[in-house]
User: What shape does this take?
Amino acid sequence: MFTGITRALCLLATLLFASCDNDPHPKPLVERGRDGGPPLVRYTYQSEAPRSLDPQEAYDQMSRRVLEPVYDCLLEYHPFKTDPYELIPCMLEAMPERHASADGPVTYLCRLKKGIFFHDDPCFPGGKGREVTAADVRYSWQRIADPKTECPVLSSLWDYVTGLKDAYELTQKNGGKFDYAAPFTALEVVDSHTFKVHLLKPYPQIIYWMAMHFTCPVAREAVEFYDGEKHDGKRRERFKWHPVGTGPFRYVHELSDHDNNFRLVRNERYITTKFPTDGWSPKREAVCRPLAGKQLPILDEVQIRILRETIPAWLLTKQGYLDSFGVSKDAYSSAVTATHELTPELLARGVTLEKDVEVSTFYTSINMDDPLLGKNKKLRQALACAFDAATENEIFFNGVREVAQQIIPPGIAGYRKDYRNPMGFNLARAQQLISEAGYPGGMDPKTGRSLEITMDTSASGADERLLTEFEQKCLEKLGIKVTVIENTFAKKIEKEDKGNFQLSSGTGWGADYPDPENFFMLFYSKNMPPEGKNISRYKNPEFDSLYEKMSTMDDGPDRLAISHKLVDMLNDDCPIFLTNHKAFFSLVQPWAPRTHNNMMLEGGVKYLCLDPTLREKKRAEWNH
Amino acid sequence: MIAYIFRRLLYAIPTVFGVMLITFILFFVWGSRETMAKAQLGQRARPTEVRNWLHEHGYDKPLIINAAWADSTYHHAEQPWWDSIFIQQIKNFTVFELGESDFNREPIGEKIRSGMIPSLLITAPAMFVGLFLAVALALVQVFYRASALDTGMTVACAVLMSIVPMAYIISAQNLMAVTLKWFPAFGFDLQGWGTIRFLMLPVTVMGVIYLGSDVRLYRSIFLEEIAQDYIRTAQAKGVNARGVLFKHVLKNGAISLITLVVAHLPLLIMGSLLIENFFGIPGLGGLVVNALQKQDFAIVRAAVFIGSLLYLFGLLLTDICYAVADPRIRLS
Assistant: This one.
């Protein structure tokens, strides 16, 4: 009997091992590529699941990464022109035409490209996606004002777009049911493919909103069909989990689950955009030149995995099962040398290293309403000069981030590459400034003891604690005593909203759109919390007046001069002290070279390319 | 027996109520609702958005009862006194209406149902294979007690117990997925027999993580048993070593094992927080870790509720099994 059992176990083990390999990916949905060769399937990952795939609702980066390939926007960022960032038409035939009237209101005339279709889906008659019209754009803008949609940017837009606030308030008054048949003054449909956007006052930044998915067209049929209710005994998904877009990739909801993986396949009817014919950097010439003018997307399928831990992502990258990898702290020493180059092992594999700088700035906010700090400019300047951002960058971020010299991050008009913050790190100056502030050697003459300041953080892990401790030690070099108050993230926000802090560490801003106005508004006195984001509670009439002026101006030398002036004012007044612009390294596999590094795109998947033959060869080499 | 079970079920009601009350205090009384909303909406959310979010999620009601003296901020005069968050939650949980996720408004009941199978596919084999191995090794140790083999195995168990679970996970992924290339380092695909290749690595790791402590514990149980008088009597009557070990020590020691094992059986559904997260298993453990990371308290509350019910069920099951396995025990 034992012999029989042993044989059976051996057979089972043999079968099991014979069927086993270490490839974690499911079989591609697409069997052949456009040219009849192997399909071009990209394997990518992100650290968190999306919150929603409804373009009018989703705001977080993880949702945008899945949404971007599925929904095209009216405009889009040129993939290669990033200094400064540049907008180009996507669903529109051309850039919107602006018509300003003498008394203030502004109108943007927009024309949709013809022949753009929604993805095929059961919500349409016969399951065939219909052509996109101006009425669809109107419907999606109405959805922004519909309280049920919970559009997070509604209150940012209603100050500028005609009738958005009225539509929202009327709906609230009428018990929350939005009347889609009622007149809607924000967007006027001129004909099937032409519409006008009406603004209350000049707001050149509106074109950036047209490059965000909040304003992209959605099909009313899809929103109403996917209502999450039971029909004929079967529950339909909600629209937020069943995107029906117009973009280069179709979302395969049968093979996607909302928490762990997402499958996208090429939209066969996509004709909206082509690969640009110029603008790439010389180092990408060999990759981009053969793709110039080609119909997008280049890939046939994209598989997105949610990998919440970085260790498995690093292992899969080493095995060749991920096409690129954002170098994490765990993997840093195995992937990158002290001189910021690839390790010899990865170099030998043909892997390349890319550095991306996010359009963001981090800083510590100083409460200008605080009786001690708000009234003592020299004291604020002393704190700013005492903080050693470069050493912090070296110790905690391996020197990868960029030390911030100005509130505007790289890539935005007004950013000066060679500019140096006059209140940057200089300990001797800091000590002199604190004396001039009335606290020589950091001593408070009234008490005879060290001046005491509190610093709020949301430190939750060991790394964050060390980071805060570093900041504390930097400031204490002035002879003052800095008490760190640790809060939960939510509690810190609450304190910032109420102005219940002296210093608030680890604050920052990531650009909604690449315009300096999006950063200067953080210091506009009419933008106070909790409605606004002027956490420092900075009030400066001169700053306000220049901000108001530049926020309605078009880009040009005059606006640039104002931007520079505002940066100088902030650096001199020190309502914050700057730390860094977030940056990170990515490993790129030899078969999936980068075509762009545009940080305003959420991956720019439609521009990505792939060599499946090389991937197979390399995977075989690395795994056998 | 039936009366005992009925009584135990009645006892469960105040226990579960207590768990729900403590959970409620932790989430709603110690933390502000506005900050809870901002944790979901992000730092940039404006008060209007926060108010909308609270309304949509039913968090704009008074905490305990709807009375102006109890909560003037959220009091709704037009609603009855029982229109409060706590009473609503008790009502919903009583009929197993677990609500929607704070993070993305997906139905929690569906998420829990879909997470049970992947969790069980990991925890059940890991537990049963681990139990079989641990009992076998413990019996070997007892058989060769006070020998060099026993000492060596005790040291090995101590070593196994001293290694942190993360080290097992990372080493196993490196060894079995990267070096030996047997199994995927990550992932899960419910596709019949093909699923097995995704299970081998996490099941092995989970089994090994608890092996050291289990062998030590079972060895102690069996050693206690082997020192009993009836074993000496059996040996004196000429029962061979194998007979003593399997017929007497294992059988009687199993009564103690039952109390340890059965109590944990229902909790297998809840999965393993660490293993699921590191191996990408879409089970309930991963769901809870993910919810904690995203401050999705609706899921955490539901998981605590389900977990407490399962735990109480496990304890009841243990008592029943104990009575069935040992005729000397009477439940009263």
Observations:
- Chain B touches chain A through 58 residues (CB under 8 Å).
- Residues 2-108 of chain B form one domain.
